[in-house]
Amino acid sequence: MYQNIITPEEVIALAFSDGEYINPAVITNLDIAVVIKRWIIPITGEALLKAIMLGKYKDFTEKILKPTIAAYVRLDMQPRLNASTGQLGLSVVAGANNKAADEKLRHELMTSLRNRAKCLRKYMLEYLENNSGLREYTGKENVLNRCSCDGGIVQIL
Question: For residue 92, how many C-alpha atoms fall within 13 Å in the half-sphere facing its CB?
């Protein structure tokens, strides 16, 4: 899969900067692979990702790709961190020192995480479009060159 692009520890360092401890075991390589498949490859294309996995384009990978992947991993995982499932079903943390955030706060957090991820993805797209040094990126496979959703309106180009 895509294990050598970003590690769970790097995801935590880039996307969970709000001071809380997150155990790296919470984020699996499968979580990262799902995000790459859903949010990254439709923009970059497979060829560019394969080149990156071979060690090419380190500057792009470190400064743009990893933060974008990390933001989407956080966005994808946050609902699972808000509640846990077990044999007794779905529960939230509510110990003596902890109280689960109310719905309004959870909504604000998810909106903030979604906006950050979208902004990073847009920055990644702008970088890809303006840097011809990434030979494997052609723009032909980039779904955002054919379709966008702005202000709730889906536009097919």
Answer: 11
> Which H or E run includes 85?
strand 84-86
**Residue for token digits 């974008």?**
68
83-137 tens-digit pLDDT:
777 776 776 666 656 666 677 887 888 899 999 999 999 999 999 989 878 889 8
Q: pTM of the prediction? A: 0.84
Count of other CB atoms within 10 angstroms of residue 44: 25
In one-letter notation, the amino acid at residue 40 is I
Determine which helix (DSSP H) or strand (DSSP E) holds 119, and give its type and residue range: helix 103-130
The amino acid at 22: I
Q: Give the span between the Cα atoms of 10 and 64, in whole angstroms.
A: 13
Say if CB 13 and CB 63 are below 8 A apart.
no
pLDDT tens-digit readout, 48-76: 999 999 999 999 999 999 999 999 999 99
